[in-house]
Amino acid sequence: MNEEKIVWFNGTLMGETEVHLSPFDLGVSVGLGVFETLSAYRGLAPTFPQHYERLVSSAAEMDLSVPDAEEIADAVESVIRANGLGEQRARVRISLGTGARDLGGHCSSADVQDYIIVTAIPQDDPKPMAELVLVPKRCNEHSAVTGIKSSSYANHVLSYRYARKAGADEGVMLNTSGNICECSMSNLFLVKDGKVLTPPLSSGCLPGVTRAVVMKLCQEESILVEEWDLSEDDLFTADEIFITSSAREVQPAKMVDTEMQCPGPLSKRIAEAYQRNIHNEA
Fold first, then answer.
1. How far from chain centre, in Å, is Cα 123?
2. Is residue 1 part of a domain?
3. Among residues 22, 31, 169, 212, which is most buried (max CB within 10 A)?
4. Phi, psi (5° rounding) for residue 55?
5. Rounded-to-integer distance, Cα 214 and Cα 202, Å
6. Which residues, in sequence order, are CB contacts of 176 under 8 Å at separation 6+?
7. What are the φ/ψ torsions at residue 268 (nearest 5 degrees)?
């Protein structure tokens, strides 16, 4: 029997089975909410400020309120400690929802309030490399939730499941214009002729925290990095591919059933720079 996990719910640590949400909650019924997932190393979450900033930005688009950064940082630390994860790598999730309101945002009770849940579970280190497959599901770069880490995440989850069933680790998603957008659970980078390329935010991709860190590291390492509209063909003509997320960090990748060098020299160099950066911060 699995041991019950401790979570932080609206300012209080409690067992996961003690959390109660209304069946009329819009986060439950229609996915109206936002979330952040970040990695902690030996109790410290070095990218917390960037994740908190994105949480606030996403919440504003959903008309949700967010506790101040100090309170959420304390919640993250408390949940990690309460679950005995202070000496290892942990996956922390911060979820924010609306409470039981109607679709217009109105509530029938003065007791209804936005809620926030913080959880932490053990997280393994990423595999040395990932295999990718193109998935049929597309990102809508014109969607109302583009650029928001929205709880309405079914499109990406289904794309991830498609990729896993196809024997891959991640699915590459195009947008409605037919350009590369992102992977189902990560941002994507290509290397061509010594230059690092990644889809622009206008493609509909999430403004990933690790994506931003990597672009900054490339500049510091004197590696040319550019946002570029990338086509499906670029996946098969690139010299290297790597993907980024809090969970995957910087993970060298290649398309399934191809002979692309993996890891390539630039991917390896950037991954090593990321490791130095993240552990210096932690």
1. 14
2. no
3. 169
4. -60, -45
5. 18
6. 138, 139, 140, 141, 142
7. -65, -40
